[in-house]
Amino acid sequence: MMARSMWRPGLATLVFVVAAALTRPAHAGRRPGSDACEATSEAALRFCRAGVQSDKWLALGKCANLPDPAEVKACNREAIAATRDALQGCKDEDDLRDAVCARLGPVPYAPVVDATRFTRSTTIDNPYYPLVPGTTFVYEGQVTEEPSGFEHVEFTVTHETRVIQGVTCVEVHDLRKLNGVVLEDTRDWFAQDDDGNVWYFGENTTLVDRGLPVDLSGTWTAGVDGAQAGIIMEAHPALGDFYRQEFLLGEAEDLAEVTGLDDSVTVPFGAFDHCLKTTESAPIAPGDVSDKFYVAGVGNLLTVEPNGDRSELVQITREVP
């Protein structure tokens, strides 16, 4: 999500997310004074609409091959209705991106990752996001939306590392099961800078069906194909901070806002006061706004989805030395 070539100790991450002076200059081909964020949003909207139109024509082509004229007519109606809904989805995404631009400003999102500011990058001891190799965080809860059932998530900090943009990152294995069946198998890469901010440098996400990989959507690596690193946890969260956690247009656009600093949370792992609350959203998933709660010395305790579903911390295990 963010970085810069000049740093001031203790400066909140949000400042250099939104300030033009702390990002790279506009690309040479861009008109001086133009709005890079707005231009990015407009391009994404055109891409979305073009995809919808392509899907429509393919669907109509399939309809035309039906032998029964009545079936053709019904199929055409369904294709047109689906197109209308999908175009509305494109507009909803665009509205959200416009709202993000209004908050983050017109400059390109192009953080400068300075590897010299990550001298102990694999020592991730941010109190709200500690990642000690050999530690597994276990979360569980009921999922009410389809596919529904009992969710079990294991967030394991491995001993593996990966170098991304010159920074050595810690690899986390994130395994999600529903009713005992693996649905998602993800590798995430994190690193902590010298000011204590925990950066998110990429993920390899695999959706699984009946034991077979079926979808890699959401996979990204900072510095590859326009993907940019983000901040997963600030060193000093302040109420109202709003920042990108990741960025690959159309694939990974998660954002977070600090919405609470003194919440109380009770989960199977325990009851805690003085919890940090962040609200996460993404333009590519309109309406999918979740609240996450963290406590110093433990990390993430709870995620609450828009429909009220809760993913709660039930256990933390650590390797025996």
What does this structure look like?
With 321 residues, this protein is an alpha+beta fold. It has two domains: 36-104; 118-318, Beta Barrel (YmcC-like fold). The chain contains three helices and 14 strands. Strands 1, 2, 3, 4, 5, 6, 7, 8, 9, 10, 11, 12, 13 and 14 form a 14-stranded antiparallel beta sheet that branches. α2 (36-64) packs antiparallel against α3 (69-104). It is globular and about 70 Å long.
**Total count of strands:** 14
Write down the overall geometry. globular
What percentage of amino acids are in beta strands? 35-45%
- Determine the number of helices (DSSP H or I, runs of at least 4 residues): 3
Instruction: Give the N-terminus to C-terminus distance in angstroms.
Output: 34 Å
Biggest pleated sheet: 14 strands, antiparallel
Give the domain tally: 2
Specify the helix fraction band: 10-25%
CATH architecture of the largest domain: Beta Barrel
* Succession of helices and strands: HHHEEEEEEEEEEEEEE
Helical/strand content category: alpha+beta
